[in-house]
Amino acid sequence: MRPPMKLPIAPLLGLILAASAARAAAADDTLSINDKEYLEMTGLNVMLAHDFYPEGHQGGVGIILNGQRVATNGDLRLEPTPGQWQPTPVVGVRAVNRDAREISVHMSYPDESNNQRGFNPVTYPDLKLGYVLKVKPEGRSFRIIVDLDEPLPPGWAGKVGFNLELFPGILFGKSYEIGGQFGTFPRQPNGPGAVSDGDYELAPLGHGPKLTVAPESERQRMTIEVVQGGEIQLLDGRAQHNNGWFVARALVPAGATKDAVEWLVTPHAIPGWRSDPVIQVSQVGYHPKQPKVAVIELDRRETEFKPVALYRITGAGPEKVALRPAKDWGNFLRYHYLQFDFTQVVEPGMYEVGYGEARSNPFQISEHVFERDVWQPTVEYFLPVQMAHMRVNDHYRVWHGLSHMDDALMAPVNHNHFDGYLQGPSTLTKFKPGEHVPGLNLGGWYDAGDHDLRIESQIDTVHGLALAWELFHPDLDNTTIDQASHIVEIHRPDGKPDVLQQIEHGVLSIVGAYNSMGRLYRGIQDASLHQYTFLGDAADMTDNKVFHDTDGEAVRVLAAAAVAGDQSEPRIGHLPALGSEGSADDRWVFTEENPARELNTAGGLAAASRALRGFNYPLARDCLRIAKELWRNAKAPDTSVSRLEAAIELYQTTGEKPYADVIVGLGDAVVARVARFGWLGARSLALINDPAYVAKIRDALKGYRSKIDALELKTPYGLPYEPRIWGAGWDIQRFGVQQYFLHAGAPDIFPTTYMMHALDFILGCHPGPNTASFVSGVGAKSMIPAYGMNRADWSYIPGGITSGTALIRPDFPELLEWPFLWQQGEYCLGYATSDYVFLVLAADHVLNP
Fold first, then answer.
1. Rounded CA gap, 428 and 65, in Å?
2. What pLDDT, on the 0 to 100 scale, is given for residue 678?
3. Hey, which residues does 263 pair with through a beta bridge?
4. For the packed helices 644-654 and 674-684, what is the interaxial angle rounded to 10 degrees?
5. Residues in CB range of 532: below 8 A, 6 or more apart
């Protein structure tokens, strides 16, 4: 007998490792269910019901292909191209069956909860529809299957269909082929079209049993084939909604239950695909004294890391000044992260960071880094452009004409408004529903991408600017604001500090309303959906003339249209169209009893009264008077922590002991909720001469510092950060402002480090491949376009602050270059705006004392 053959150990081990690698590669090349409950392979992820925000284009079946989200909202819908305020289903619990290699979720119509806040006024009470939505991997493809609990009810065949939305921003100019028809995805929605069931729909771009999307693109190619159900229609969803996407839709056949819809979807996942390295830095730059940490975002499968280089940009080109390995931070979300600390580099100049072939955008290191082009655009452009009841000129350009001088009619009682306002059984004033309320057509800023004035957005903007003025005294003067003539001239100084003039403008709205109604407004908003969805010059929304609703017909008709979800233009008897002279186009003012908002406003007005002393003394006096009245009348006990900030502001303004007593009495509440109120406790330390109180607050702050230190370690960005559907930028700003006050009140406990990391995050050091600054027009790369009042023009407003990078659950950070996603790109007033201005000024203050 021959002895057994002996193989050398090294070659044998090599064969084993090669076989193992081959098996791993094969597994990576076919879809399987991962530990996060979605389908995954190299270059492809398929989610089901991780998100449910269909009006924000997140939900149902979603597809991420080669690092881009290409499709979403795969689900049964009741309209061909649904938008906001249209019916959505109830989402059940996602079920994962690994043996059957299937992910499923039970869904049902109607969702009556859609009506709770008035956001979805339309329901379909005659439709009872339950179904199971499933995805199943099949090699490099996957199946989407819909099983109905019962056949469609009579009358619903031809209306219910399976929709899959395709992201337009990466499809314009790419080709498609469907059923022998072909073309390119158009940049704008083009006819022909027709009105069906009261809605305008474009004719399909094509229809057939198989759709191929972007066949010429290795990164985007995808085919969808019908296995069961109706043929596919390729629709343009922008006919009714300019924030619509392209839609692949197949109708559910009458009588069908099991496999009522079945598609085979084959996205082209590039073999061996890996995400490109992304270098995340502040798009503005750094002060020599501050921490400087670039974050390198890599594909999670990367194991061999390149050294990171810092280049100084000279007249002869980039010059390498540092080259060394970066710190291996670890995994976060779906990526792997490195940190490159170049804090020791302090020489002024322009720099860039390099990793392999990748380069960051250029940024500066300078002690003057925050003195120009950072917070200033928000005050020079964004706040002036958002000013209501003004004409805003910018040399050759008019941002908007004089607008809403007919504000406002009292809102109807017992009315649930589509934008979340709720008017109770009384107007809480002497004014009747439909009656004109004087004093509301001056001051205030349009909030966000629409044109309403919410009390919290107004007072929070005022409050933040007032504190910024008090602490940092920014004396920028680049704008003329003429309240008497209602004219703003951008880039024309008038000898008055712009920040003070903006504080004055916000206060005029609040004080005018209070003096007229004897209380705060909840908000001033459009009466009809037709006006609410308006994009264009705000001067064209109303005729600027007060409408007298003598018989109440206008209010009744408009309220009924709003409740019915009618987005067409309401017609009121013989009256002209909305916006035409003599029409019932005036906005409505809503009221409420809300102690928390009343006390919040009291605190902001008290701070504004200090800022306006010496600038507009009568208005400053009104601010303090109203603040005190709100404090007295708010139906909240002195033991309510909602009184804390107002007590601090009123005590700082007046020095009156009762306010100090309230602050001391709330010490235990601050300790119990130090993560939320600790920064106010820190603010109070310089005001309160009570050793026991001071010791109590300081002890709590020490414990809070330890918690923040622990949370900071959970992300590579040096601060607590929990991604969610809405971008977290505004929360990060708020955290940064609070860190300033924590440092100012207890500098031995809290450093400035977290405040600076928060600012870096806003200015570009945040997750995802889009490293834009969240502030439009600020930094080498910024959020352009954005969701402002000029979004229909694919434009932006300099200095507008967006919420930024959002999370496509469970692990995909996204910041699209697309002007129609409010959860990523919308501008907002309130602390979203004033916190940014404050935070940059605070950074400059602590670094240049």
1. 54
2. 98
3. 144, 226
4. 10
5. 418, 419, 450, 525, 526
C-alpha span between 561 and 575 (Å, rounded)? 16
What is each CA distance from 77 to 106, 131, 179, 370, in whole angstroms?
14, 12, 23, 49
Neighbours of 635 (CB within 10 A): 9
Instruction: Specify the residue for token string 């239950």.
Output: 257
Q: What angle do CA 190, 172, 137 make, to 5 degrees?
A: 115
DSSP strand pairing (391-394 vs 487-490): parallel
Closest CA to 577 of 569, 586, 565: 569
How far apart CA 532 and CA 381 sit, in angstroms, is 24
pLDDT, residue 576, reads 61
Helix, strand, coil proportions of the chain in percent (round to 5)?
Answer: 30, 25, 45
Tokens of 283: 């798009």
pLDDT attached to residue 125:
53
Which residue from 585, 587, 560 is spatially nearest to 575, judged by alpha carbons? 585
Token digits of residue 269:
């996942």
Residue 178, CA atoms < 13 Å, CB-side half-sphere? 28
pLDDT at 810: 96
In this structure, the strands spanning 409-410 and 588-590 are parallel
Cβ count near 614 (within 10 Å): 9
Q: Report pTM.
A: 0.93
Three-class DSSP category at 13: helix
**Sign of the alpha-carbon dihedral angle for 331, 335, 338, 341:** negative
List beta partners, residue 807: 813
Handedness of CA 207, 210, 211, 217 (dihedral sign): negative
**CA 110 to each of CA 82, 106, 134, 420, 672: distance values in angstroms, whole numbers, following the listed order:** 15, 13, 20, 20, 42
pLDDT of residue 781: 98
Quickly list H helices, 539-585. Answer: 553-563
E strands present in 483-614: 487-490, 523-525, 588-590
Listed as ranges, residues in the chain with pLDDT below 70 are: 1-27, 111-125, 551, 561-579
CA dist 649 → 463, 595, 605, 606, 610 (Å): 10, 17, 9, 6, 9
- Tell me the pLDDT tens digit for each residue of 103-144: 999 999 986 554 433 334 444 557 889 999 999 999 999 999
Residue 2: both structure tokens together: 């021959």
Cα-Cα-Cα-Cα dihedral of 260, 264, 267, 270, to 10°? 150
CA nearest neighbour of 579 among 509, 526, 525: 526
Given a contact cutoff of 8 angstroms between Cβ atoms, the answer to whether 821 and 727 are in contact is no
Residue 407 DSSP SS3: coil
Element (H, E) at 472: helix 455-472
